[in-house]
Every structure is written in structure tokens, then in C-alpha cells.
């Protein structure tokens, strides 16, 4: 059998091959762009920090207010507490440079998307909110909130601050919170200590709304004994 002659490429074949090469180059360029867009930039993160810190190495109240405005969150929103917890921020209303850059500003904590810009953080807010739905994480955030909100030269939390933080954390999930808040307002207490703070969360999770399973001889702090007594008297009157 005589050897088969090789077919000479036609003009159409040349155009098809050229288009294939162009598509390949375009795909490589597009992939490169995507990788570049997804890559975390320490430099961009640092520049982002100084947008709010100015010449200082800390974002103060004014910068924090602008930061919240840019990401579309009120300063009193619970998502800001979650954010502070993720950064292990030590003082309410402040982010230091070290805290801001911790874990490359949430690169391993907020979401799979590394946050080095306002837009990326704004896109991660839903994730931050979802953290509150995890029981273990919520407990850690709740405990963190006590030390975060208290004056650093005080071991307890002043009552007004405690009520605000309790409202932030339990106001929407604990039906008895409004009544408990009323109790605190008329009580003799001026501060809440950490043991009382932690037991309020445990109380909200384990005690029935009618308080029927509350054990007065249990290891509850006196604060909660007094709340139960006050509540029952209020219901009977």
C-alpha cells in the first residue's frame, strides 16, 4: 500500500490553530489575574490600616467610626464584637497595628477569602455573623466580651456596660432578657463580676422560661437567686 500523503493545512486550519493558541494564552492570563486578585497583600493590608489610623499605630474611636461606616456596620453591632474577638483586640474602640495584622488580618479566621481591603471584609460579614450560631464559639465570644468591655484597672464590669453587652449577646435569643434587664435596673448591684457574668449565660441556656427547673440549692450566684425570687414575686402580684 503506497504511503498516505500528508494533507497540506488549509487557511481554515491555520485560523483554527491560531485561535486555539490565543484561547490558551487568554486562559493563562485570566487564571493569572484571578490568582493575583485572590492573593493576600500585606502591603495593601498595611495601607488599609493607616487609612483609619493616620500617623499612629492604633485605630482610635474616630478611625473606628469611619471603619464601621465603610464596611456598613454600626459600631454597636454584634458583628464588631466577633471581629474584635477574631483579632483578640484588648480594648473596646481600638485596633492596634499588631491586632490588625494578626493572622494577616483574619486571613485564616474570617473566611477562605483573605481580608486586606474593605470590600473583602464586607463580603465576609455573613461569615462573622454565622460564627455566633456555633455554641462553642458563642461561649468563647461571650467570655471574651467581659474582659474586652471592662475597664482594665477593674476586675468587674460596671452595670450599665454589662447590660449593654448582655443585650448585644442575649437580647435576641433569650426571651427572659427584658425581664432580667428590668431586675438589674432596680437591683442594688453596681457591677457584675466574671462568675456572675458566666453564670448568666449558663442560666439562659439551661433554665426553663417559667424557672420551674431552677434549683435554689444549686451552685448559682446570689444574683440569680435574687432574680428568681424577684421574678416569682412579680408574677404572683
From TrEMBL:
Among the GO biological process terms of this entry, one is: protein neddylation
Q: Which UniProt keywords apply?
A: Nucleus
Q: Where is the composition biased (Basic and acidic residues)?
A: 15-29
Q: Does the keyword Secreted apply?
A: no
Q: Name one GO cellular component term.
A: ubiquitin ligase complex
The DCUN1 domain covers 40-232
**Record's Gene3D superfamilies?**
Cullin, PONY binding domain, EF-hand
Intracellular or extracellular location(s): Nucleus
**Is the keyword Transferase assigned to this protein?**
no
* Chain residue ranges for the region called Disordered: 1-29
Pfam families (alphabetical): Cullin_binding
In the record, what terms sit under GO molecular function? cullin family protein binding; ubiquitin conjugating enzyme binding; ubiquitin-like protein binding
Output this protein's name: DCN1-like protein
Native species of this protein? Myripristis murdjan
Amino acid at each position: 500500500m503506497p504511503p498516505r500523503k500528508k494533507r497540506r493545512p488549509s487557511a481554515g486550519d491555520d485560523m483554527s490553530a491560531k485561535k486555539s493558541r490565543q484561547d490558551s494564552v487568554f486562559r493563562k492570563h485570566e487564571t493569572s489575574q484571578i490568582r493575583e486578585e485572590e492573593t493576600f497583600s500585606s502591603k495593601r493590608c498595611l495601607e488599609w490600616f493607616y487609612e483609619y489610623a493616620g500617623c499612629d499605630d492604633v485605630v482610635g474611636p474616630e478611625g473606628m467610626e469611619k471603619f464601621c461606616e465603610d464596611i456598613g456596620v454600626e459600631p454597636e453591632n454584634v458583628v464588631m464584637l466577633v471581629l474584635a474577638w477574631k483579632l483578640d483586640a484588648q480594648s473596646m474602640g481600638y485596633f492596634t497595628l499588631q491586632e490588625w495584622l494578626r493572622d494577616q488580618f483574619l486571613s485564616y479566621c474570617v473566611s477562605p477569602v483573605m481580608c486586606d481591603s474593605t470590600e473583602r471584609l464586607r463580603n465576609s460579614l455573613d461569615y462573622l455573623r454565622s460564627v455566633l450560631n456555633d455554641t462553642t464559639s458563642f461561649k468563647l465570644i461571650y467570655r471574651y466580651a467581659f474582659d474586652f468591655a471592662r475597664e482594665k484597672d477593674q476586675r468587674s464590669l460596671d452595670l450599665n456596660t454589662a447590660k449593654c453587652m448582655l443585650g448585644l449577646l442575649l437580647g435576641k435569643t433569650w426571651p427572659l432578657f427584658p425581664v432580667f434587664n428590668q431586675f438589674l435596673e432596680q437591683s442594688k448591684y453596681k457591677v457584675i463580676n466574671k462568675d456572675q457574668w458566666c453564670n448568666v449565660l449558663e442560666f439562659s441556656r439551661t433554665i426553663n422560661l417559667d424557672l420551674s427547673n431552677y434549683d435554689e440549692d444549686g451552685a448559682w450566684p446570689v444574683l440569680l437567686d435574687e432574680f428568681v425570687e424577684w421574678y416569682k414575686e412579680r408574677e404572683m402580684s
